[in-house]
Write a structure and sequence with these properties.
185 residues; mainly alpha; Glutaredoxin; two-stranded antiparallel ribbon; globular
């Protein structure tokens, strides 16, 4: 995966900032056919599969989109836990490969368990919305920085939008490192 390769090759620190993609999606989700009503979704799915392949990511035959708000709150909490970063890959696989409803608390608790996290605490975090304010702050920051899609790679008021091949992200990181080098002198 491009991000893991970047972390291995460059001094980058990845922080997940959440973004409200289709925040009005109901808890039971929506079919992609409904989301893209009146359009042939085959080319859309093929395009996404191609982008994911270039980025080295698996992509399943998704039929639905699900509200990701609770998954974002779970991810925000997981980032505070030892080894919690693993949740992001698990959430990706659940959503994009396995077509899991990531708005369902029981499903999210299972994903937390797969990531090696405490399931009782994960359930408490989700049921009591303990990271709601932190995700609200992320959404506000996303709006303020002009994020319009996911993923967006952002640093120093520069951004790269969309699923990108490693080479594109590497150019972005090299440019940032060069900018940083000039600022230090």
């Amino acid at each position: 995966m491009s991000i893991e390769k970047l972390k291995a090759n460059y001094p980058v620190d990845i922080r997940w900032i959440h973004f409200p993609l289709h925040p009005d999606t109901p808890a039971e989700g929506r079919s992609l056919a409904e989301l893209f009503a009146g359009r042939d979704i085959r080319p859309i799915k093929e395009r996404l599969q191609g982008l994911m392949k270039v980025a080295g990511l698996p992509y399943g035959d998704r039929t639905h989109t699900y509200n990701s708000r609770l998954a974002q709150e779970l991810g925000k909490w997981a980032d505070t836990q030892e080894g919690g970063a693993a949740i992001h890959d698990k959430l990706y696989m659940a959503y994009f490969v396995d077509n899991v409803n990531i708005a369902d608390i029981d499903e999210l608790v299972k994903i937390a368990e797969l990531a090696g996290l405490d399931t009782a605490i994960a359930r408490d975090v989700l049921e009591n919305r303990k990271f709601k304010d932190q995700v609200d702050a992320d959404w506000q920051r996303s709006r303020e920085t002009g994020v319009t899609g996911v993923p967006t790679f952002y640093a120093n008021d520069l951004m790269v939008v969309g699923c990108q091949p490693y080479e594109t992200l590497e150019k972005f990181v090299k440019h940032l490192l060069e900018l940083n080098r000039h600022e230090l002198h």
